[in-house]
Design a protein that fits this description.
- It comes from Rhodococcus rhodochrous J3.
- This protein is an alpha/beta fold and about 180 residues long.
- The protein has six helices and four strands, in the order H-E-H-E-H-E-E-H-H-H.
- The protein has two domains: about 110 residues, Diaminopimelate Epimerase, Chain A, domain 1 (Roll), CATH 3.10.310.50; about 30 residues.
- The protein is elongated and about 90 Å long.
């Protein structure tokens, strides 16, 4: 009798915040790339335009309450991004979710870390600032580190070679001496 095979679960279905429809969000984003309560729209549109002027296709979605789980915001951002493309920032009063077809995950999460303010306009401004700030020149820093290590290795090699040559000279000079006065 063979043992039953365990079912390996596949990816979980998208879990969106209760009462949020991707279709309604997409319809709201269609005119200005912002889906938010009316008191925030004008300021958020200005931040979206600033991002677009710098080559970032940004959409901002603001929810009026936190979902059951923070991952629901990321799922919503992913669903919106799959339909609309670009970079999507989803904010609730206490949590943030992001998706981007253009930015790497490290940049996206670093920018996301600066958005926990509770104010959607300030959060979006912080996000845009973080995404637009130049990243460290990692290639240059890597090359400099490699050069320093190579110089240190070369200096160590030369020091050992000089020491070995000095030891050979000392050993040759202090070798067996023959004395004829006995």
């Amino acid at each position: 009798m063979s043992a039953p095979l365990l079912r390996i679960p596949g990816p979980a279905l998208t879990d969106l915040p209760a009462g949020v429809s991707v279709e309604k969000v997409l319809a709201d984003l269609a005119d200005d790339q912002v889906a938010a309560p009316s008191q925030y729209v004008d300021d958020l549109v200005a931040e979206v335009q600033r991002a677009q002027e710098n080559g970032i296709d940004l959409s901002v979605v603001v929810l009026d309450r936190d979902p059951r789980m923070d991952s629901q915001l990321r799922d919503l951002a992913t669903e919106v991004g799959a339909e609309d493309g670009g970079t999507v920032l989803v904010l609730s009063p206490g949590w943030v979710g992001t998706f981007s077809a253009d930015l790497d995950r490290v940049t996206l999460e670093a920018a996301q870390d600066r958005t926990y303010t509770g104010d959607p306009v300030v959060s979006t401004r912080n996000f845009v600032d973080s995404v637009l700030e130049p990243s460290p020149p990692w290639t240059l820093m890597t090359l400099l580190i490699v050069a320093v290590v190579a110089l240190a290795a070369g200096a160590t090699y030369l020091a050992k070679r000089r020491r070995a040559a000095g030891d050979a000279t000392v050993a040759g000079g202090n070798g067996s001496s023959s004395s004829t006065d006995v």
